[in-house]
Structure formats: structure tokens, C-alpha cells
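Hi F.,

I've been meaning to write this up properly since the lab meeting, where we talked about keeping a consistent format for the predictions we share between groups. The idea is simple: the sequence comes first, exactly as it goes in, then the C-alpha cells exactly as they come out, then a line or two of notes. No screenshots and no reformatting. I'm using this chain as the first example so we have something concrete to point to.
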Amino acid sequence: MLVLTAVGAHAATRSHGSCEQSVGIFTKGPLLTANVGNGCGLAKIALGYKKSGILNYADHVDVKIKATCTVGHGEIKDFEKTVTLRREQTKGNGFTTHSLDVFYMCGDDPSGRFTNAEFTFTAPDGTTDGAYSVTKDEYYANSQSAGTNDTSGDIGVGIWGIIVTELGK
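Output, unedited:
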């Protein structure tokens, strides 16, 4: 299953069926996507805009996501969603969403598989940054992962710490 992600963090080994969380973080320019999962059914994503981005002056940014997904039995569909990213609260490192369902970009369809996506960020004053495009192949080629011993039913504190560190770059 693919939902964007990559990080310059330490790789972690997880035993099969472990409920310990792992994250893959993908960054491109100020775009950050984090895919969080475990062996016990957790499948969440978080989207972010890094502190180094030109919109860092704003109190929040909106990201418009245009995604092409394979759904059902191979049908190709386009989806468009906009979500607000709030300023990250612990260190002020950019902006992030709360945890989202892993199928968010594909219309919340559990059969949806991301093929490519484009992310455009907009500040409240109308200034834009983007469009940052990511393909499935680019995602897989550039993904790295890290993990923690968090076992909560949502993105755990340790994983958020990894995401926040990446937002600050």
C-alpha cells in the first residue's frame, strides 16, 4: 500500500506483527508527508509544510491536493481535496495536519492506491507555494523510515517527534 512518505532518520527493524509504530517521511521542497503504521492495523498519514518554506510567516496554510488513484478493480480516478495545516505547536516548526486516514487522498476509498499527486500550498493572504508533484515511483525510490516503541491507536508522541524534527529543516 502506498501513501506518500521519506526521512533522514535512523532505520528501524520491526518484528512481524509488532504493534510498534514506524513512519516513512517524504520531503520535497517544503512538502512533508508522513505515513505511519504498525503490524496491528494502524494506517495514518500526516501532511506538513516545513519551516524553511516561503509561507512560514502565516498563521496557517491550506494545501490543495490533486491525486490520481487506482480504485476498485483498476479504475483510475482523480480526487481533489483541500485541508488546512495549523502551525506545529511544540517547536513552531512549520505546519501540519492532525492524523488523517491513510486513504484520505484517494477519496477515503479503502481500495484506493495513490499513483501520483500534486500539492499546492496557499497562505491566507493568497500567496502560493507549489505545485509539488510526487509519483508513486519517486516516493518508493526516496522513502526512508524510522520507528519508535509507540503502540497507541493513533500517531504516537515519538512519531510526532520525528515529524516535528523534519518540519524544522
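Notes:
The beta strands are 22-28, 31-37, 43-49, 60-71, 75-87, 95-96, 100-101, 113-122, 128-135, 145-147.
The helical segments are 136-142, 157-167.

If this format works for you, I'll send the rest the same way.

G.
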